[in-house]
Amino acid sequence: MGVIALPLPARLLLALAAGLLLWLSFPDHDIAVAAIGGVVLLGVAMWDVRARLGALLGFLAGFACFVPTLSWSGIYVGAFPWFALATFQSLYVALMGAVLVWLQRPLIRAGRVLPAALLIPVLWVLQELVRGTVPYGGFPWARIAFSQADSPLARWAAIGGAPLITLVVALVAVPLVLLVVTRRLPVVALALALVVGLGSWAVPVPTSGDSSARVGLVQGDVPQPGLDFNAERRQVLDNHVAGTEDLAADHDDLDLVIWPENASDIDPLRNPDAKAQIERAVDAVDTPLMVGAILDEPSPAVSNASLLYRPDGGEPERYVKQHPVPFAEYVPHREFYRLFSDKVDLVRVGFAKGDEDVAFRIEGEGGTFSAIPTICFEVAYDGLMRDAVRHGEDQGYPSLLVVQTNNATFGHTAESTQQYAISRIRAIEHGRSVAHVSTVGVSGFVNPDGSSTPTTELFTAAQPVDEVVLRSGLTVSDRLGPWVEWASGLLVVGAGALRLRKRLAGRLGDRRPSTPQTEDVTTGA
């Protein structure tokens, strides 16, 4: 088997190259096929090594990927938080490497190379599950699935969500791993890769809907990028009011207008002036307006909310963000983390956690529909998005997914386009159009098949409008939930149980007393 004797320096280089290929698969490079190459190189580097080396190789690959992919996280807060985040994320890939090779090695030594190789996609799925879950709710960014928005493999999201895309990408890599390490191409592995690769074209994704709605987005821009983007909070609010008035001047047929997250960091429920400015915008467009706002409640915390204002007045309906971002919107164990960086004190007030899904009912010209709000990083969480869609479906109307976000704190980086790519995957996964609006860009509309309208530029004021497809019904992914992760977990548990059973049987065999030899009296032997 060709690379079993591969020297350590070569394995280390392969792991680093694997991580760099994974980085190149994400926006703004968008080389989707590079993700397959990354899985191949790491699979080859880890082939038939011990768990300790597997962990090291996994860490190197993760570090080479996450450092450049997450560089936006340190753009205004410095290198320490950026490298701390990249290092912490790399530990999950290290854990994956240790578990993978521990399960693989007995199979490889027994000549069962196909089952050993098929563990690669299973462990990638579970690594992303754990990384996106713990601690503090996890950080499900830079998953292989989110690099595939322009790939036909993205269509598998309709069947199994983001986890199935990751599984399929890694499954396509399996025959290439085996080709390198065994110098032959198993027919079964090749057939599996062809089925999932070419079969993606057969996965049905919707291109039409039950009805449509005319929707406008207001990207108001901010006075300056960075952590002080809201130092002139009134200016940010005024920008969005002015953008809405420009929108109203050009369009008088809108069913819904959407502002981004943080469009009003002045609480409009408590500040009469902010309230008056928003009502001015509502009067201008004479249609429902979704406003991203910060509410000074529940004291002493604040809430990140989406408020729905209607032309007929009244108290706005609200959705409160259910998954505040740790270290950005609240700081867990502040005293402990302050030992490493005083940047934690930039988050002075914690954000409260919302506790329910919301679907805003909108009476459009083409009929009633639901607008399902999610805020910023919430779009990256599988379960939260699935629950929101199911709740919207329960309302009995076709619906639209809304992602309200603020990318001003990440400057001119790939964070905004990486997030937009996630919205494109969600559109396919849930069979819904997505209206994605940012304070500073990028903003745009995603169709239920994942295709997108042209997006806005960063740090410019813009008011894109589209006739948005509205759909009802649940996809297979919505109905079955996290079945890919459950199946992967069961496979790993089964493989681990077999590994331990054989190991235990081997130890018991070593302890059995040997049969005493009797002396041959005829020969004296």
What does this protein structure show overall?
The chain is an alpha/beta fold and 525 residues long. Helices cover 45% and strands 12% of the residues. The chain has 14 helices and 11 strands. The strands form 2 sheets. The chain has a 6-stranded mixed beta sheet with strand order 5-4-3-2-1-11, with helices on one face. Strands 6-7-8-9-10 form a 5-stranded mixed beta sheet, with helices on one face. Residues 518-525 have low confidence and may be disordered.
Features:
525 residues, alpha/beta, 5-stranded mixed beta sheet, 14 helices, 11 strands, globular, disordered C terminus
Give the CA-based shape: globular
Q: What is the number of strand segments?
A: 11
Proportion of beta-strand residues: 5-15%
Task: Report how far the terminal alpha carbons are from each other.
Answer: 43 Å
Uncertain stretches of 5 or more adjacent residues: 518-525
Question: Which class best fits the helix and strand makeup?
Answer: alpha/beta
Estimate the mean pLDDT confidence. 93
Placed side by side, the strands forming the largest sheet appear as: 5-4-3-2-1-11
Rg to the nearest angstrom?
26 Å
The total count of helices amounts to 14
Helix content: 40-55%
* H/E series: HHHHHHHEHEHEEEHEEHEHEEEHH
Please summarize the sheet with the most strands: 6 strands, mixed
